[in-house]
Amino acid sequence: MLYKLVRDNDEISGIEPVEFKDLSSFGKLEKDLENLIANNILELLFEDAKLMPIFQERSYQAEADIYALNENGELVIFELKRSSADAGAVQQALRYAEHAGQWTYQKLESKYRQYVKDENKSLVDAHLEAFELEHKLEPKEFNQKQHLIIIGSAADETLISSVDYWKKNGLNIDFLPYRIYELAGEKYFEFFAPPYDKHKNPADVKGVLFDTNRTYDEDGIWHMLENKRLEAYGDAKRFASHVNEGDIVFFSHKWCGVVAAARVKGKVFKPDNYTWYREVEFLTSVPSRADELAYMPFSKVSEFLGKSFFWARTIKVPYLTKAEALALVAELKSYLK
User: Fold this and answer.
1) Which residues contact 48 (CB under 8 A, 6 or more apart)?
2) Reported confidence tier of residue 1, pLDDT bands at 50, 70, 90
């Protein structure tokens, strides 16, 4: 809940709750909430509980809104309500879980291939890359357990009672509220992550491992380094706005490692519909095309920080704290020598 501070002269005399809304207030559909959650599961909403979306519901099909996998290959099933949710949402989620709990690896892979529109894509390989595992999971290890997450703008007493009942009986189920506030003509989305909201303050300096787009453009890295920019392209261009002025970014080059670090300067530039970029000031030496590319391997980055990252994304979550980022900059300077 958001509260307005009530002031009496220079003293804070109390607080007043601010009215919140949901997507239906703005004529949006449940599908809009579904796409919003699916497109941001990994980058923003679940910073410390990484998930890999593998399927979204189809029109007129008895399916949950979103299906995702966690690092252990367990299936996470989302049931979304654009407005307030009641016990009926729990019953829906239970039906979907009963059905999906019987899916074989082949069924999961088939659904994933539909989702990514690639009939030859291996779910085992995609999962290995997404979670940077040392070894692939065996097909039989997938979908050994299911987790249920219900998302709505608010919960009535029947939903709370139902969720509590199933939790006491060993079912892994959670309700996560979202809210929309309209302040000074702008709309703001609020989301609460389990088991408690531990999202970092966006105003705090953070460290971000940012992809150089090698998969699609071998020269992308050089365009960034030579022009002192952090760039993002195409469907991923929005990620340029996920870093703020003062953040420390680490250039993550696929199949190699981290090649440089820089501090973000200024606003997001949008020269065309394909490219967004931020200007940066480098904190480490900058590689040259003429030299052999020096880098700190991903395994060393994880070992130094004591963290694993979702390497398959443009932004590698989780984010780093300011202290972690500065420590990695110092280590990177030493390593690149």
Assistant:
1) 193, 198, 318
2) confident
CATH number for domain 206-336, candidates 3.10.590.10, 3.40.250.10, 2.40.340.10, 3.30.420.40 = 3.10.590.10
Coil/strand/helix, residue 297: strand
Q: What angle do CA 302, 313, 44 make, to 5 degrees?
A: 90
Alpha-carbon gap, residue 83 to 23, rounded angstroms: 7
CATH of region 29-173:
3.40.1350.10
pTM: 0.65
Size (the chain), residues: 337
Residue among 179, 184, 165, 317 nearest 252 (CA): 317
The identity of residue 262, as a single letter, is A
Q: 13 pairs with which residues across the strands?
A: none
185: tokens are 């003509």
pLDDT 10s digits, 3-55: 888 888 888 888 888 888 888 888 888 888 888 888 776 556 665 567 889 99
Q: Is 152:37 a contact under the CB 8 Å cutoff?
A: no
Q: Which residues are bridge partners to 257 per DSSP? A: 253, 297
Output the pLDDT for position 238: 84
Burial of 229 (0-12, 13-18, 19+ CB in 10 A): middle
pLDDT band at residue 140 using 50, 70 and 90 as cut-offs: very high
What are the Cα distances from residue 172, in Å, to 11, 102, 137? 45, 17, 22
- The CA-atom distances, in angstroms, between 131 and each of 80, 111, 122 are 25, 19, 14
Reading the block at residue 246, the tokens are: 């003062």
Q: How far is the C-alpha of 158 from the C-alpha of 156, rounded, in Å? A: 6
Q: What residues are paired with 56 via a beta bridge?
A: 66
Which pLDDT score is estimated for 191?
79
